[in-house]
TrEMBL record:
Annotated signal peptide: none
Alphabetized Gene3D superfamilies for the sequence: LCP protein
Family: Belongs to the LytR/CpsA/Psr (LCP) family.
Transmembrane segments: 28-51
UniProt keyword tRNA processing, yes or no: no
UniProt key word Signal: no
NCBIfam families in UniProt: lytR_cpsA_psr
UniProt cross-references to Pfam families, sorted A to Z: LytR_cpsA_psr (PF03816)
Protein name, UniProt field: Transcriptional attenuator, LytR family
Highest taxon above the source species: Bacteria
Cell envelope-related transcriptional attenuator domain segment(s): 103-249
Coiled-coil portions: none
Record-linked InterPro entries: LytR/CpsA/Psr_CW_biosynth, LytR_CpsA_psr
Length: 334
């Protein structure tokens, strides 16, 4: 019995030693795996830090460049414009007869950041502005074809004496696509419109009264210039159209059309609004009121020697801007 018990004891000892060796081997491999895992985590964390730092530097550089771009559109010591979002909308043609493209429509949209009030200031395309001594004054519509959108924004900024934070260049196709996406817009036509330009291939025939306009008809309505009032009549039609569009955009069914409108704005409209502006613009748009916007025409008069030209009245423009954009102290007093 003693030999058998002694043999059993030795077997038990061997088994325990075997188990210990297996345990130690497992612990060793667990330790190796832990070290490798910690190393991988450390490596990933380090490279994530480097990647995050690189992304931060890119974003910071992008934001700094964005800030500099917007500072260039701002006038020195122009505190009164800070309370408003000013957007210059340029409606450009396709360049007729091989000529440079022109800004047929120039409209400044000014939105009060606090209450969402919208003011619409139209600048006649024939407004004379001084460019340089060699060429003298030229119609403001021609600035776009010669100096592009930036020079046009600068010219309007200097003409009005206010900062313009944003611009949007809308060609005829983009305008038509926007209106067609909205399923048209209802506009009142005061007098029958009839005009033909074989060289341009343009035929306009719009009857008097309320018209449900698609994109093509709206283009013709806005481009029509014939009539006794000339550019004044054209600006008045722009104002009626802007009010009609504003009312249409505030309707509930516009919400489901937002994705397509956003695509058109992204693909077909040239603008300096960037991702950094999204939140601010969205908050302002949400505060829009149901009341139609206030519409204003640039003070001036038709040139006696050419009814297509508009001579701006600098004194009246100055008074208009003081009323539209009061100094911060005046706003607080009110």
């Amino acid at each position: 019995m003693s030999r058998k018990a002694d043999s059993q004891t030795r077997e038990n000892i061997k088994e325990k030693r075997k188990r210990r060796r297996i345990y130690r081997v497992r612990q060793f491999f667990r330790l190796i795996l832990l070290i490798l895992l910690l190393g991988a985590i450390g490596w990933a964390s380090y490279h994530a830090y480097l990647w995050g730092s690189a992304v931060y530097e890119v974003l910071r550089a992008d934001y700094d460049a964005y800030t500099r771009r917007h500072e260039q559109l701002k006038l020195p010591s122009d505190d009164r414009s800070e309370a408003y979002m000013n957007l210059l909308v340029l409606g450009v043609d396709n360049g007729i007869g091989g000529n440079n493209r022109q800004a047929d429509t120039l409209i400044l949209l000014s939105i009060d950041n606090k209450n969402g009030d919208l003011r619409v200031l139209s600048i006649p395309r024939g407004t004379l502005v001084g460019v340089n001594r060699e060429k003298g004054a030229v119609p403001i519509a021609e600035i776009y074809g010669e100096g592009g959108v930036k020079e046009t924004v600068k010219t309007v900024r200097d003409l009005l004496g206010i900062s313009i934070q944003y611009y949007a260049v809308v060609n005829m196709k983009a305008l038509a696509d926007i209106i067609d996406t909205l399923d048209g817009v209802d506009v009142y036509v005061e007098l029958p419109m009839s005009y033909a330009d074989p060289e341009e291939g343009l035929v306009i025939e719009i009857p008097q009264g309320y018209q449900h306009m698609n994109g093509e008809t709206a283009q013709k309505f806005l481009r029509f210039r014939s009539g006794e009032l000339g550019d004044i009549g054209r600006v008045q039609r722009q104002h009626r159209f802007v009010k009609a569009m504003y009312e249409r955009l505030l309707q509930l069914d516009t919400i489901k059309k937002a994705p397509e409108l956003s695509r058109i704005a992204r693909d077909e409209v040239q603008t300096n609004a960037e991702i950094w502006d999204t939140a601010q613009i969205a908050n302002i748009v949400k505060s829009f009121r149901k009341e139609p916007p206030e519409t204003i025409m640039l003070p001036g008069e038709t040139a006696s020697y050419d009814d297509k030209l508009w001579i701006p009245d600098e004194a009246k423009i100055h008074e208009m801007i003081k009323e539209l954009f009061p100094e911060p102290e005046q706003v607080q007093e009110k």
